[in-house]
Design goal:
It contains 5 helices and 5 strands. By secondary structure, it is of the alpha/beta class. The chain has one domain: Glutaredoxin (3-Layer(aba) Sandwich). Helix 2 links the parallel strand 2 and strand 3. The chain is globular.
Length: 132
């Protein structure tokens, strides 16, 4: 699969799609960012079932601000809408491959279960704080 560009309109639909979404945040003026794009493109060729995307922070400043991207390059890895990694700094191609491997290996049923338990326990704490 080719690397896609995300903007304010396409980000939401890409995020809610099941599967792995790897996003590289970059800027034309950022020297290390010039390496990120080609590395992401090479890894994307090996994993056509994964969505690989790049976001130009100068073209999408609002999206970068909403997601807290302040330093480039940055890399985010999502799976089934869950943020797995938010990394700032260069990411060499072998590490990208390792991140893909780790994202694939993650037990998402276990993650969903843990999140549900956390939310339920957090709800009980809030109810208790309000005298309920």
């Amino acid at each position: 699969m080719a690397v896609v560009s995300l903007d304010g309109r396409s980000f939401g639909p890409a995020l809610v799609r099941p599967g792995i979404l790897l996003i590289g945040w970059w800027a034309k003026w950022c020297a290390p960012c010039c390496v990120l794009g080609p590395d992401v493109a090479r890894v994307a060729q090996q994993h056509p079932d994964i969505t690989f995307a790049l976001v130009d922070v100068d073209a999408e400043p609002e999206l970068a601000e909403v997601l807290g991207v302040q330093t480039m390059p940055a890399l985010m890895v999502f799976r089934d809408g869950f943020l797995l990694l938010n990394h700032v700094g260069p990411v060499p191609e072998p590490l990208l491959e390792d991140l893909v491997r780790q994202a694939r290996a993650l037990d998402m049923d276990g993650v969903r279960h843990e999140v549900a338990e956390y939310r339920a326990s957090n709800a009980r704490v809030r109810i208790g704080q309000h005298g309920g």
